[in-house]
Fold this sequence. Notes:
By secondary structure, chain A is α/β, with parallel strands linked by helices. Chain A has 8 helices and 8 strands; from the N terminus they run H-E-H-E-H-E-E-H-H-E-H-E-H-E-E-H.
Amino acid sequence: MIREEIKKLNKPATLKIFTSSKNLQESVKMVEVMDIYQKASNGMLKIEEYKLETNSDLVEKYEIQHAPTILMTNTKDQVVIRYLAVPTAAKIQPFVEALKVLTGTPNYYENVIRENLNKINPTVIKVLITDYCAYCSTVISICSQFALASEGKLRTIIIDIMVYPDISEQYNVTTVPSLIVNENKKLIGDITAEELLNELINKTL
Amino acid sequence: MFNIDMEGIDLEKTYDLIVLGGGPTAIGCAIYAARFALDVLVIGKVFGGLIATTHLVENYPGITTTSGQGLMDMFKEHMNSLSIPYITDEIRSIEKADDHFILHSFFQKFKALSVVVATGSERKKLGIPGEDDFAGRGVSYCATCDGPFYKDKTVCVVGGSDSAAKEALFLSQNVKKVYIIYRGEEIRAEPINKKRVEENHKIEIIYNTNIVEIKGDSTVKSVIFDNGTEFEVDGIFIEVGSIPNSDLAKHIGVKTNKKDEIIINRKSETNIPGIFAAGDVADAPFKQAITGVAEGVVAAYSAFDYVKEMNIEY
């Protein structure tokens, strides 16, 4: 499915991934999967791998707290989407969608997000997911596309809580998908794009 | 073309058919519509619908066993092979304008000569104290989503349907104990699943019982039965039926029955020319994925006939 989806990428994109010997199994898996993406992309996708232990300047610059991590940065080199999850299974499609929009495909929500940007505070949305969660793919898509449309104001972090159970415990999460917004609001279930935008605009977060 | 970006989507176009929904009914309808050479667009709130939350599908003819997500992956592959565009969004209103319909979401506006409403249903709540308070903190409506959080814990499943039985079976793979709490005297699962439940030593059924309150602190700790007993559990999975998502259609004047199901005829037609309905949102007496798909396919054919008669070129 990776090969099918990544073929849709028609402009070059570069992703930075950070790996760590302290999380070796997941890091190896991440590198293997991203290698599949890169090879199947007909040269459109380039992966730059950095080891946490030997790139302290980049770790500090991009505020890397967990590895492996994938960074999607905008033209201003701002990290708009951060993946603490290996993009396999149901995560493939929203991952490739995000790459396409990152490289110029129009964003479905862009116009409405831009119209409301002055009403939205800078926000970090953590999307807590699992691989077998039926609706996580849709919520990842929505949060990713919002971040891409927001000129850096919204930042999305996709977190696989089967890999990072400490994060689900930190936020007392027992259902997925769960959104943790600016560390102080939890939104659960298959939230729609309209619902999320209303939450952001109404400054309840 | 499964997308949330704008690739392949033309907002200026009047589609022959827009299908509303993300489950097997909607996708089955769209596949046939595409094969009828209708210019079709699918708009769904969540891809997969309710069936995507089922861990076990054994009654879709041709497929011995798969998961709900597995079934929808096959539907997605079929849809993609026909380059049928799918958008994740929710239509808030439909209006009739001359010879076509205008569909409004919060983000975009679409036009179509015909519409199939395959918006399915959403899970019914118990409506008891504590249910909303503990949503996501021990109250769940999706065992496949949240079951893994209850490893080695004790949970209950409320309901007596085949879906409730399957939820219990799925949960039993991970948890310490599952109690099925049912108001009736005998669960209504398919005989094959009923037998599996009865033979599963981790599952126990408590009959003739309703839960009237959910209690806890940071997470669910117990439920209160209607006989006054307080019963300790770590999680509660609610599977007590569903409510058809027919409000959108009702607002444009589509007729529904007392259960808010859209009334359709054998051609999947509603009372409004050009609007068709199919699947869990409609008034079939027995609702399964395969029956919904069948109605969706009939709706596609009826939409094809309808559009052909209009003979409009855009």
